[in-house]
Structures are given as C-alpha cells and as structure tokens.
What does this fold into?
Amino acid sequence: MKYNKNTFFYLEDGKIVACHSLSQDYYELDLEHFKRLIEKSKDLPSQASKEQIDQDLSSGGLLTDNLDDQLLAWEGDPISFYCHQGTRIYAQNSPILNEDSFCEEFIKVSSAVREIPPKSIPDYVQQIKLPDPDLTPFRKSSFYDVIQKRKTSRNFDRVSLNLKELSSLLYLCFGPIHGTVWEDFEKHHIPSLGLRRSSPSATGLQGCDAYLVILNASDIEQGIYYYASDAHTLYQLKNRFDDESLVYALGDQFWAKNLSAGLFIVNDMKRTWIKDKKARGYLATYLEAGHLSQTILLAATALGLHTWITGSFRDDVVDKMLQLKNSPNFASFFIGLGFGNNGSIPEKFIETIASKTR
It folds into this structure.
C-alpha cells in the first residue's frame, strides 16, 4: 500500500488531524500512526509488525493500493492541488435521490434560511443618496453590439465620469431590478429567503457587494464607497487613498492611476456559509463573482465606458484599504472604468519594447 497523496494534515489543540481531501473525512492521528505515514511517504517496504497500523490507515483511505487516485498529472503547487481536490464532489459523497426526494431536499434547503446575515457596512464619513438610475442606454443597446465592443483596455485618460452613469451601472448590476419579492417562490408558497439581481447567485442570497473607487468624477469626490443596493446609497469610507496607493494595491498595474473609477467585487462568506460551509461553497463564491463581473463589463460597455478587469492584487493591502481585515469578506475582482483609446496593450509597454529593439 502507498501513502495517499490526496491527504493533508494540520494541527489543532495539540492534535494531529488528517483530512482525506476526496472523501472529506477527518481523522485524529496519534504519533505512531503519523510516523507510519511518514515512512510510507518514503515508499519503504511493508513490515509485519506494523500491519495493524497499516490496516487502520487503509480503512480511512490514508494508505491505498489505488494509484489512479494520486492525480500524478497535476503540475500546480501543493496548495493548488488541495484546493482543487477539496472543491470536488464525488459520487461516494452524493447519495442518489429520486424525483420526490430531490424536491423535498430542495424545499428543505430553500426554507432552512430564516434570516439573511446583515451586511457589513464599513466605517464611513457620510452617506450619499444616488440619483435615480437611467436605464435608457441599456434598453437602446443591441446585445450583439455590446458583446462585440466589450474588450479589455489598459490605456486610460484622466476623463471624469458623472454620478448618474455610476448610479445606473450600480443599480443594473447590484440593485433589485426584479423587485424585492422572489415571485416564483411566493406564487407556490415555498418559504425562502433570497435576493434577485441581474446575475445568478449560488445560494440565492447574493453574496457579492460593490466597493466603488472614485478617481476622476465630476460630481463626487475621490474616495472609496460602499454601495448599499437596498437604499441605492453610497457610504463614503473613512479610509483615503491616492493614485499611487491604488496602483500598489493592484499589484503595480500602473495604468489604473488614469481610471475614472473602479469596482471591487467583495464576497461575503457569511451569506454563503448559511447554505454551504464546504470548499465547494467557497468555489461557488468565485463563480458568482465571475457571473457578476461579466454583467458589469457588458453594462459598462453599453454606457460607452472602457473596461479592464483583474483578479491579481495585494490582498492584504486591499483588505486594509476596504476595511475587510479580520472579516470573512474578501475582494475577488477589480473592474476598472474609464475612457481612452481602448488599446489593450499599455503605451508604456510599446515604448519599452521599441526601446529594446532599436
């Protein structure tokens, strides 16, 4: 039997805990069993004196004869390997349900949420009631034209954006455009708490929030703002920033300093954990942010804005900037908004390349 590479370990309250990442079973190990796993990881020959220990470890899947489970083709680092394994759902952990049982389970999960966790509003200095959204540009835009025009831009000019455009964008992407009642459930008397937006949500609780970064706008000062969709209101955060600190937070992607504005999509795990505390639920929060980001990109394009999206930034710096430190909230994407020549290659890149080929 071989050491099962799908296993990882951690320490908790003086205990050695082993987790089989596929079955998602947890085991407390004594030192003797843990040392045996270390020996087997070196592929040492079996010892008759340790057969019982091997059987114990095999019963939990920590030792295995099935080398097909080792995922030897994986080329990422160990952390990415266990992230991947931990977010998988296998048949052995998913009982087969007939139609009646599946319906009952769906209703049970939908009605289990009695209260949506309150949203975490950061420390702020003032509230700003946004102007009513103007949805006319979205109604006039051809879907094909918007899809065709959307592209990643990294060349921006310091052109001001107005609050009316931001109001429309925030409402369309984060607001209750379907109303505040989930009509399908109400119609059939299924108890459920949920929110509807223009993008789908894994839990139906819309676990993503918008943090607006204003750099150049005609009728609102530079700053960081939390968007409260229920009241269509901005909360200006106490934290301040300048162009260079934003560039630093975004991993030195220097073209960000010429944006008009940007949106951090922030995931609130409290809303996900109500229905799913496993790794698959964590994966779903990123998928939800991905759906939402596409809606934002298309809506911004319909407004005539150029867009840029990134998921690469200094997380600890962004956490401090958005007042997320020590909370279960985290930024997953940043979407830049502005005006420019719509080129995807920064002019500085082109200048650098040209200087090296002279």
User: Anything to note?
Assistant: The chain has two domains: 2-93, 112-348. The longest strand covers residues 329-338.
